[in-house]
Amino acid sequence: MIEINLIPDVKQELIKAQHVRSAVISATILIGLASVAVVTLLAIYAFGVQTVRGALADDAIKKGSAQLASVADLSKTLTIQNQLTKIASIHDSTKIDSRLFDVLQAIIPPIPNNVQISTFRIDSSTNQITIDGQAVNSYAAVEVFKKTIEAAQVSYSDGKNTQTIALATNVSTSNTSYGEDASGVKVLRFTISFNYAPELLSPLSQNVKVTIANQGNATDSYLGVPKSIFVDRAKDLGGK
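Request: output the structure for the sequence above.
Response:
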């Protein structure tokens, strides 16, 4: 079979060029339509969704601002500068409750007048300590415990001088009754409360120590405290 090409080479090149041009134009149109669609979507998001979200955010801000504005002394509460000025005073008013362990170590009498504590409550607003406890040695142990608290002293330094003050005032006992402990031993249950010196837990007090005084109390009940608890201070080896 014999084929004769009657189309010149120039004509073939022209046809190919037309096909390429058509493909390019079609691709350009498709890209243009896609770009228009993207721009349209962005415009809808920017001018539609964002506008709605902005309106909702503005409404929430207005409601929140109105709620905050109704709070009394808001500027004193939320101002950063005001908070910074309060840091020092807050630190100075923070009580050092860990010193209460030193208090317990000092005021618990030795055997046979030792007591066991079931509840220890502290009211910082009134500087009051309330202790619920029990004692095997009955009323004698409770009386010794009370007198030990009354004889306790707090020594501390204010940064310049060392001072000594009474640990407790208004010491009182109440709710005394007999009961049995977990092992079946008869004990006297009691509640003792007293007002402690504010200097005891103050962060401004340094080198705080709780000691028991042994001078200036000659009442009959005080004489019931074992003498082994109280001794005169040892003399300095240097003769001072």
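The helical segments are 9-69, 74-78, 80-93, 100-107, 138-151, 220-223.
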